[in-house]
Amino acid sequence: MTRVMIVAHHQRTEAAALAQTAAAWLHERGHEAFVTIEDADALELGALAAELVPASADLVLSLGGDGTMLRAVHLLDGAEVPIIGVNVGLLGYLTEVEPPALTSALDRFLAGPEPEHGDWQIERRMMVDMELHRLGDDARAEPPREPRRWRALNEGVLEKLEVGHTVRLLVRIDGAPFTSYAADGLIVATPTGSTAYSLSARGPVVSPRHRALLLTPVSPHMLFDRSLVLDPEELVEVEVHGHRPVALSVDGQRRASLAEGDTVVFRASDVSARFVRFGRRRFHQILKQKFGLSDR
């Protein structure tokens, strides 16, 4: 028996219908399907609700777009559970199959790994870990409070909170000061995140096969406005300078507000996201398709 956790987009009725289809198909074949309590409430899937730990699943089925894939990755919190993404969204960089191929994809996965049976493979995607170190009350507490920690598949972003003002962010690389950015914000992204927020800030497009940290300023008010592509072993520290508050977002979700002296430390994660891929997948062809690029 295979235990499958279904993660579905909350605002798309098609996702709820696909969840019911997938669950019925799995149950008929002796497998188990469940959704989190949150998804069950949002999608009226009470019959599938279970208080199971996401890491106890053998497979995650993501029904939505890239945002739903990100939520699935975060629910797993580093557990090495493979994810099949079904595109019920718009761009769908991370998803693998379209809705009509849902049960076929499940059948191929359950048949066994490529090349003997199921003709599928695991694609590992680098993630980035981050720690927030406070200069204020958290740092002075007795005993000292542990730094807050997050993990992202796409990026961590430090960004201004006040409209019409820039913020100052001092960057250190491997402990050595690099420069102080005057900008609307700063993005520290993975290669997967190179086609997310970093792309809209004119950052480079990087194949997800690479391991690298991308440092991209958002609307910098300075002569140096280029992205940096760093080795994954290099440690990046970003410290807030000045009195203007800064927000920290992790994969598009705001996680903390930062004040002067607070520092976020970024490092390549020891764990990877695991996506199920059927057949050969070429990143540059997906990029071409999503952007409607011509051959000439």
Shape: globular
Number of strands: 16
Q: By helix and strand content, what is the structural category?
A: alpha+beta
Helical coverage, percent range: 10-25%
Biggest beta-sheet profile? 6 strands, antiparallel
Low-pLDDT stretches are: none
The overall average pLDDT, rounded, is 92
Proportion of residues in extended strands? 35-45%
- Strands across the major sheet, in which order? 6-5-16-13-8-9
Tell me the quaternary state.
single chain
H and E string: EHEHEHEHEHEEEEEHEEEEEEH
Radius of gyration: 21 Å
* Gap between N and C termini: 50 Å
Number of helices: 7
Quick structural summary:
The protein is an alpha+beta fold and 296 residues long.
Overview of the structural elements:
There is one protein chain. The chain is an alpha+beta fold and 296 residues long. It contains seven helices and 16 strands. The relative contact order is 0.15. The longest helix is centred in the N-terminal third of the chain and has 16 residues, at 13-28.
Entry keywords:
six-stranded antiparallel sheet, alpha+beta, globular, 296 residues, 7 helices
Provide the fold topology.
Blueprint: E1 3-8, H1 13-28, E2 32-34, H2 37-43, E3 59-64, H3 66-76, E4 83-87, H4 102-111, E5 120-133, H5 137-140, E6 148-152, E7 155-160, E8 167-173, E9 176-183, E10 185-189, H6 197-200, E11 213-218, E12 228-230, E13 236-241, E14 246-250, E15 253-258, E16 263-278, H7 283-291
Parallel strand pairs: 1-2, 1-3, 3-4
Antiparallel strand pairs: 5-6, 5-16, 7-10, 7-14, 8-9, 8-13, 10-11, 11-12, 13-16, 14-15
